[in-house]
């Protein structure tokens, strides 16, 4: 709309890329004015059903009253930065209760930062330097993990991250034999294996049956710290994230996004014998804004809500119905749509319906063709990412499902409203 275009012009002359979070540079540009539940409104007054959810955080829906009220109430008591306060303790207690397996937790601000804390801790406790990560897995934007599966981005970042590339080995995920071979050769120089336990960032790919268990055994065999990056999967695919879903327990895990009902907060959690090193003074993890009352209050309110009123079955029902519905509507329009992944976070691209066990199979699908279509979805009032990930929230209901499928059909039919 006109107001979005005006804002875009203003933004481009003061903000490189026009938006600080870089979620999606849509053409035509869309600037948002407000959001509630599963709906966004742009500054021109048009509504969108939201499947981006800020890239995951708004699992409870936008402007969740109970969480926002808890944060406002805590702030009214003073911010208390840099001071111990009770809410921080309660937040840690509630998250650890929800997870079941972890004994200690530290709050941070972003997933990126907490990933770095976990890697640093792994180096400290093992005395080893290198870590293992997997092609297509995203762990934040800092130099030592910033390698994108996208060739252009890879080349760009290769030139910038320089020697950090030597910090890690990059393997194919879902291939336990490759990890076994690497550890046999280099195990005594490797401190940690870090992965998205479900590869959501590149394609919504589940671990093969038995894979996580085999990785767990290999890490035990070689004294390597196993880190699950549950920034997306935590409190989303189940309350206890991928650990609950697959029953394999890491040594450390990173949480973010959904943990605080949309407020900026993240955490690293894990076994006491490792995590207590943060308290020893030998391993630094800190920050002016870490463990703020807003973050803690958001986590406490979110965790209470999730405990009292578990949305996971509803979200799974919605996601499953949406996945089936999108494929059916596409088929009605003669479009072959591949929809796969978990109902709370699935992946859509053009191509035949088939199982997608790894990046190679994913790349047989038409990801670019799908990305090109997303402008039409946005034009019809569906806010979706170009890279095919759809996030579902607890605020999506029957009305949203019907409207989504109508709008999806209209976009594929080339009609405009
Ligand atoms: N890990 C994963 C799996 C993520 O998806 C993300 C963010 N998309 C991060 C880490 C980084 O988190 P943040 O953006 O909060 O720094």
UniProtKB/TrEMBL annotation:
Q: Which cofactor does this sequence's record say it needs?
A: pyridoxal 5'-phosphate
Alphabetical keyword list: Aminotransferase, Pyridoxal phosphate, Transferase
Q: Which InterPro entries match?
A: Aminotrans_3, Aminotrans_3_PPA_site, PyrdxlP-dep_Trfase, PyrdxlP-dep_Trfase_major, PyrdxlP-dep_Trfase_small
Q: Which residues form a coiled coil?
A: none
Could you cite one Gene Ontology molecular function of this protein?
Answer: transaminase activity
**By its UniProt entry, which Pfam families does this protein fall under?**
Aminotran_3 (PF00202)
Instruction: State the similarity comment.
Output: Belongs to the class-III pyridoxal-phosphate-dependent aminotransferase family.
Q: What is this protein called?
A: Aminotransferase class III-fold pyridoxal phosphate-dependent enzyme
To which species is this protein native? Planosporangium thailandense
